[in-house]
């Protein structure tokens, strides 16, 4: 009941004309940026992060909520129309969504994706309301060894499920941890990796790192591949669903949150795994096996609902523990830090008004997203005709302006483009960007928790595993690391069953 009353107060804050306007702006901007090829919600939030410097924190995070879900919808739009996923969570949507568009059913695919995002997000946000305060109250009793173990789990889980190989994932994590070391040691005051520059004594701003790796790195990567021809945009018309489509989609819409929310709430790498599991589940349960691979609408509805619910689950971990498990959560954590707010167990007590206004704005943003974007789908399709040279030149311009606004120093621009070149190199050699962002944000915090735990135990390494929770977390880490080896000893499915399922 207490959570319900706090949520009502949050709605009172979020529904003021000013905050409602920022929610609508966030939804429109997030969708407009997310609908462009190669730009997902993480890049949209990172690109617009500097724009909110002058805003009140509550208004800024309400706007970010709209950008978050708007960017997710935009990513599914490019996935369906151009077979160009705006984010990794939209990859599965392209499997059935793009064939639907090629068959002239792009409007139905967009509608299934939009309604799936709405239903999955609503159910996931309701679960966030019910579970987040409980998780936060339990997290108050977590000590330094437990926090360090959880952060190590986040490092291992994210690097293990992303990228072409674990080696590349750990290499990206090492890059992020190295960038996070730049600056003064908070405990000893010694400078680290500053190269004698006083400007680097405070470290490299997370906003510059996020915008550089996402926006600049992606722009350079696209520019290097401009000689490749793109498919022409497909007209989508007015989105609508017939009775037959609704009969086939309502069950996948409801099953999606059951799969997506738990995966989002644990450090498991975001929505990539649950969307794939949703696709496999819907394929197994479908009675129309012959349509799969040719445009089965269930393959759009289920994964999109799953991805949206997974995003809500991600916010549980980010708000209550301060652990970002996806790229968007990492950038939003940087936004909290930009306002001097540290997500964690005490956030619901110290910043209760902001947190519940943010949660209420998720409901508002999802509703606005459905109301605004269904009739505007043809307009988003026209935005795909913007020539990429103009598109990414504009992105570089706004990224530069945002980076300069961080500190008003020319060196910030140099750092932005150096990190952008690093992001380009990471894409060139198949290194995932998310582990690097996680390393930059969580690296310093993990180091502090480790050193505190060692100080309490007088330098004894046993101090890192002297609590039941830490032991359980390290056991989970051991299973994740040993899984490739353990999988060899598991019984394999019979070949005839595989052929039947196919």
UniProtKB/TrEMBL annotation:
Protein name: Putative tricarboxylic transport membrane protein
Superkingdom as given in the UniProt entry: Bacteria
Family matches, as PANTHER family: TRICARBOXYLIC TRANSPORT PROTEIN
Annotated TM spans: 20-49, 61-82, 109-132, 144-162, 167-184, 204-223, 315-336, 356-377, 389-407, 413-442, 463-486
Alphabetized Pfam families for the sequence: TctA
Parts forming coiled coils: none
Sequence ranges assigned to domain DUF112 in this UniProt record: 20-438
Keyword Membrane part of the UniProt annotation: yes
Keywords tagged on the record: Membrane, Transmembrane, Transmembrane helix
């Amino acid at each position: 009941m207490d959570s319900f009353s706090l949520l009502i107060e949050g709605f009172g804050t979020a529904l003021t004309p000013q905050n409602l306007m920022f929610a609508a702006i966030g939804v429109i901007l997030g969708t407009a940026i997310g609908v462009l090829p190669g730009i997902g919600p993480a890049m949209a939030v990172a690109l617009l992060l500097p724009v909110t410097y002058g805003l009140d924190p509550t208004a800024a995070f309400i706007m970010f909520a709209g950008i978050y879900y708007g960017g997710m919808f935009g990513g599914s739009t490019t996935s369906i129309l151009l077979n160009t996923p705006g984010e990794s969570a939209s990859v599965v949507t392209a499997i059935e969504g793009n064939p639907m568009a090629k068959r002239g059913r792009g409007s139905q695919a967009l509608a299934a994706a939009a309604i799936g995002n709405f239903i999955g997000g609503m159910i996931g946000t309701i679960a966030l309301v019910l579970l987040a305060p409980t998780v936060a109250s339990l997290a108050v009793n977590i000590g330094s060894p437990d926090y360090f173990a959880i952060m190590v789990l986040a490092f291992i889980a994210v690097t293990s499920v992303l990228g072409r190989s674990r080696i590349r994932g750990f290499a990206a994590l090492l890059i992020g941890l190295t960038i996070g070391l730049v600056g003064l040691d908070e405990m000893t005051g010694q400078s680290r990796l500053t190269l004698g520059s006083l400007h680097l004594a405070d470290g490299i701003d997370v906003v510059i790192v996020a915008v550089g790796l996402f926006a600049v790195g992606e722009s350079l990567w696209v520019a290097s591949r401009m000689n490749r021809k793109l498919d022409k945009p497909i007209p989508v018309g007015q989105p609508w669903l017939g009775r037959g489509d609704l009969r086939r989609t309502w069950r996948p819409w409801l099953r999606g949150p059951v799969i997506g929310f738990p995966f989002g709430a644990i450090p498991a790498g975001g929505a990539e795994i649950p969307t794939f599991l949703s696709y496999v589940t819907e394929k197994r349960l479908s009675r129309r096996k012959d349509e799969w691979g040719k445009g089965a609408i269930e393959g759009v509805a289920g994964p999109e609902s799953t991805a949206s619910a997974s995003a809500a689950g991600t916010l549980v971990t980010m708000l209550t523990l301060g652990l970002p498990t996806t790229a968007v959560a990492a950038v939003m954590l940087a936004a909290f830090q930009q306002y001097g707010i540290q997500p964690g167990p005490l956030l619901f007590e110290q910043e209760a008004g902001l947190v519940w206004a943010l949660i209420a704005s998720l409901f508002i943003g999802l509703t606005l997203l459905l109301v605004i974007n269904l009739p505007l789908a043809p307009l988003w399709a026209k935005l795909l005709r913007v020539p990429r040279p103009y598109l990414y030149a504009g992105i570089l311009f706004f990224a530069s302006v945002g980076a300069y606004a961080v500190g008003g120093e020319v060196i910030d621009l140099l750092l932005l483009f150096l990190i952008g070149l690093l992001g380009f190199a990471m894409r060139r050699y198949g290194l995932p960007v998310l582990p690097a962002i996680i390393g930059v944000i969580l690296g310093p915090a993990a180091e502090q928790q480790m050193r505190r735990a060692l100080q309490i135990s007088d330098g004894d390494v046993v101090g890192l595993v002297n609590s039941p929770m830490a032991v359980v977390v390290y056991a989970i880490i051991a299973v994740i690391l040993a899984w490739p080896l353990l999988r060899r000893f598991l019984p394999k499915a019979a070949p005839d069953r595989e052929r039947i399922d196919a």
